[in-house]
C-alpha cells in the first residue's frame, strides 16, 4: 500500500462544516473515516505538531518544542528555525518507510531538510535576510530534482509566497504521480490558510477563499493519483495541525519581563515559554502584572510535564482571549499557540483507502495516534510512538 499524507495548516474543529461542504473533503469523509475532534499537542505550533505527525510522539520525546530554537539575543528576523530532520530525536515515518524500501516524497513539510530518507524533497525553509532563497533550498532539498522541476515549471510560480507556493506544491505532487516512478509515500504541507488567517483574520474572506483553494489542491492530488491508476492501492490521510483565534492585542512580554526581573519570554503567539536563572522571581512578576500583560494562566513545571512539553521549559503562560505575545510592535490578526482547552486545539483527520471503514465517524482521537495508525496500515515499524493505533478506523482489527 502507498501513502498520500496532506496536512492543512491552521484549520480545526470550528472549520469542519465549511470544509465538509466542499467537494474533495466531503468525498474523502464519505469514502473513509472522519474525525473532527483530534486533540493536538502542546505547544500548538506548526513545527512541533508536524513532528508529532511524523513520530507519534510529544515534544518532550521528539525534541521539537517550538518552530525555532530559543535565540533571545538574535533579532527576530534573523532567528533560525528547525529546518533539518536531524533535529528530530524520535524515529520518523520517513525513516520507517525508507527501511521498507519505500520511495518517499516530502513537500513543504516542516523539519524535513537534509533528509537521507526522502528521495524527492522540497522542504519548508525560509531564507533569512541576506540569504539566497535558491542556495538555501539547494542546501536542504533534493537538489537535482528541485533544479529539474525549477527549470520546467519554476516560471509558472508567480512568487514564493502564499497562495502561489501551495499551488506549486500541488503541481509538484501531480508531476510526481505522473512520473514513471511515483512515490510510495508522499507528505505535503499546505500553508495557504495559515498565511491568510495570520495576515487578514480568522474568518476573513481571504481565509475562506484559502479553504476553497485547499479543496481544489486536494482534488488535484487525488485526480493525479487516479490518473496514475494508483487509487486502489492508496491510503489518503488528510490532517490539520491547529486552528487560529483573532488576537489583536499584542503584548511585548519579552521586553516587559526583561525590565521587570531579567527573565526572557519566547513567544508561542497566544502563549509563551519563560526562561531565566530565577524563575521564582519571574513567576512573581507575571502574577503582579497578570491582567496588564494579557495572561490567562501561568503554567507550572508540573503542568508542563503533564502536557509533555519540552523538558527545558519549566514555566510558561497562556494568553487571554484576544491577546498575543509579540517581539516587536506590529498589528496582529489570527494567532495560535494557545492552550489545549479551546475548539481551535481540536483538529481534523480524514483517512481513506484499502482496509479503512467507509463513511465512519470517529468521536475523538489524539494527534499522536495518527503516526502509529499509519504505520500499522502500511506495515511500518514506529517503536518510539507514544500514541495508540486508531483500531476503529480499520475494517479488520
Ligand atoms: Zn500550523
Topology:
Layout: E1 2-8, H1 16-20, H2 23-30, E2 33-39, H3 46-55, H4 59-62, H5 93-99, E3 104-107, E4 120-122, H6 133-140, H7 143-153, H8 164-178, E5 185-190, H9 192-200, H10 205-227, E6 234-240, E7 245-246, E8 249-251, H11 253-261, E9 264-267, E10 271-275, H12 279-288, E11 295-299, H13 301-306, E12 316-319, E13 323-325, E14 334-335, E15 346-352, E16 360-361, E17 365-366, H14 370-378
Parallel strand pairs: 1-5, 1-6, 2-16, 2-17, 3-4, 3-5, 8-13
Antiparallel strand pairs: 2-15, 6-15, 7-14, 9-10, 10-12, 11-12
Helix pairs in contact: 8-10, 9-10
The chain binds zinc ion.
Structure report:
- With 397 residues, this protein is an alpha/beta fold.
- The chain folds into 2 domains: 299 residues, Alkaline Phosphatase, subunit A; 84 residues, no CATH class.
- Strands 1, 2, 3, 4, 5, 6, 15, 16 and 17 form a 9-stranded mixed sheet that branches. A 4-stranded antiparallel sheet has the order 9-10-12-11.
- The longest helix has 23 residues.
- The mean pLDDT is 97.
- The site of zinc ion (ZN) has 6 residues, from loops.
- The site of zinc ion has 6 residues, from loops.
